[in-house]
Amino acid sequence: MGRFPNLTAMILSTPGGFDADDNALSGFLAQVPQLARLCLVQPNVGSKFTLYALVIAAQHSALRYLELTMDGGTGPLPALAESSPSFPSVLRELYVGHTRIRDPAPMANFLHTLFPALDNIEHQWLDEIEEYNVAPDDIAAALNAQFFAGRWDEVAQLMEDMWEERSAEESDQSTE
Fold first, then answer.
1. What ranges do the domains of the chain cover?
2. What percent of the chain is predicted at pLDDT more than 90?
């Protein structure tokens, strides 16, 4: 990628998922300092990217749009104290694909800290529900999709509430 230092957008789609991890993402973003839009689109096949990929993305100063499915895992969110960016991220849109998460409230706080300008979060959990038939395996997959869709919708609502609260505080401070 060293030959494309002025690259501003990249969209890659693969039916089988990406054979890349957080380290590969970090190395890639370091080579494209002007990248403002990154879309790594894959179906619901699992991912080697972890939630730490969001910390990596926050450190990339130009990134405004990110689409990436991560393995949300069952462990704690990445620590921010040692790895938080030294400047605020300008990321405004985040599409998390089929990322699984445990608890919406800590995720909303995590995203709010990493991406203060973030004003749109979306997922792909409900995209394929219409494709499921009435077979028991399909019903289980549809219920799973609805479960994670609900968690991400709650994250988006919590983020919106935080943004409104921050706006009200800034408005109060400007009138004092």
1. 9-175
2. 45
